Amino acid sequence: MARPGLSIDEARRIALDESLSAHRDGQTVVVGCGNLLRGDDAVGPTLVRHLWEQGVPDDVTLVDGGTAGMDVAFKMRGAARVVIVDAAATGAAPGTIYRVPGEELEDLPALDGIHTHQFRWDHALSFGRWLLGDDYPDDIVVYLVEAASTEPGAPLTDDIATAMHRVGAMIRSMWDDR
Length: 178
Prior knowledge:
- The longest helix has 19 residues, at 158-176.
- The protein has 178 residues and is an alpha/beta fold.
- The protein has one domain (23-176): Rossmann fold (3-Layer(aba) Sandwich).
- It has helices at residues 8-15, 43-54, 69-75, 121-132, 158-176; strands spanning 28-33, 60-66, 81-88, 97-101, 139-146.
- The relative contact order is 0.21.
- Strands 2-1-3-5-4 form a 5-stranded mixed β-sheet, with helices on both faces.
- Strand 1 (28-33), helix 2 and strand 2 form a beta-alpha-beta unit.
């Protein structure tokens, strides 16, 4: 017996339900993406924990985005600014920091044929633009830190830990300079 599914309109209505929001409209939302169990891939969630320990203003929401890209799209709803932090593997020197405006990534990669287990934060930008409509943030920036090792169970390598603190200082300056 087939289970009834939600229509696109029903799913969108649920996704945009104000009572399910993780933050108030107008917030800065910092999302740390990555896997805490895979060495340098943990840079995003680890940075979110460091920012939490240091304290953030009331208009900043911290999110451990983990590896669930679809959740990132929902966490962006209504935010004034979104900052995403993740590890990168481009072949550059470990600890290299890339700052990329979100609009440069919104159309990459195509969503056609993607399985939910393959859905990453970069997919969330494209999906979020479609799903959230007017509630999609105008100000999105992505910080990527070049990883050295994603060995299971390993801590952050020294170069990545240093870069993580540099990215944290850049993010904190967003609210410290106000």
